[in-house]
Amino acid sequence: MKVKDIMTTAVQTVGPNASLKEVAVLLSKLRISGLPVVDATGAVIGVVSKTDILRKGSSAARTAGEAMTAPAVTIDPDRSVSAAAALMLELGIARLPVLEGGSLVGLVSRSDLVRAFTRPDAEIALEIRREVLEGAFSLPSDAVDVTVEGGIVQLAGELSTETDVVALPEAVRLIVGVVAVESQLQWRSGTTPELPGQG
Q1: Dihedrals φ, ψ of 124, to 5°?
Q2: Residue by residue, what is the 3-state secondary structure of the chain?
Q3: Which CATH architecture has domain 3-116?
Q4: Mean pLDDT over all residues of the chain?
């Protein structure tokens, strides 16, 4: 699943000269926690959030441009949802403006990521077959038995190399909505290698 599949496309923005009061009213009205700040050409130059307002509201900052966090951390719409989640966690941020060719095309937030985890098990299984088996590993979609229940994935079957037996479950873990992976995959020797985190 990619960022473009879950991002919000109707993105409200503010200019750098918007007052903090105007920003606060807008955040409250829209029930959101942050907004991209764009210049006259529409380029994203920062992000202003409730935290920025609280932190800088008692200082000399009076406008979105003065209070915003800059430069804005952005992401491409074709990046994976797991990459967006990792970036948010690493930097401790709650939203990412989505840029395509330098233009703002959407916004992805932690709320969007949480909603992605409510995906049906059948949808998760389909993505595993298409994106992991057929895509990343160039295997037939039925090369591995894939069962998903409550976000828990069970993998069973035989692969040609030990490397694939270890790497495939790790790739499946990156699929949005996957809670855990239980692997019974084997390779030609007939053994099931111990996977990271299982020992």
Answers
A1: -65, -45
A2: CEHHHHCECCCCCECCCCEHHHHHHHHHHHCCCEEEEECCCCCEEEEEEHHHHHHHCCCCCCEHHHHCECCCCCECCCCEHHHHHHHHHHHCCCEEEEEECCEEEEEEEHHHHHHHCCCCHHHHHHHHHHHHHHHHCCCCCCCCEEEEECCEEEEEEECCCHHHHHHHHHHHHCCCCCCEEEEEEECCCCCCCCCCCCC
A3: Roll (3.10)
A4: 89
Q: What is the pLDDT of residue 190?
A: 56
Place of tokens 């942050």: 34
Q: State the amino acid at position 178 in one-letter form.
A: V
Q: Note the pLDDT tens digit of each residue in 67-97.
A: 999 999 999 999 988 889 889 989 988 899 9
Read off the amino acid at residue 83. A
Where along the chain do the CATH 3.30.1340.30 domains lie?
121-186
Could you please state the CATH topology (level 3) that the domain comprising 121-186 is classified under: Histidine-containing Protein; Chain: A; (3.30.1340)
Confidence of residue 54 (pLDDT cuts 50, 70, 90): confident
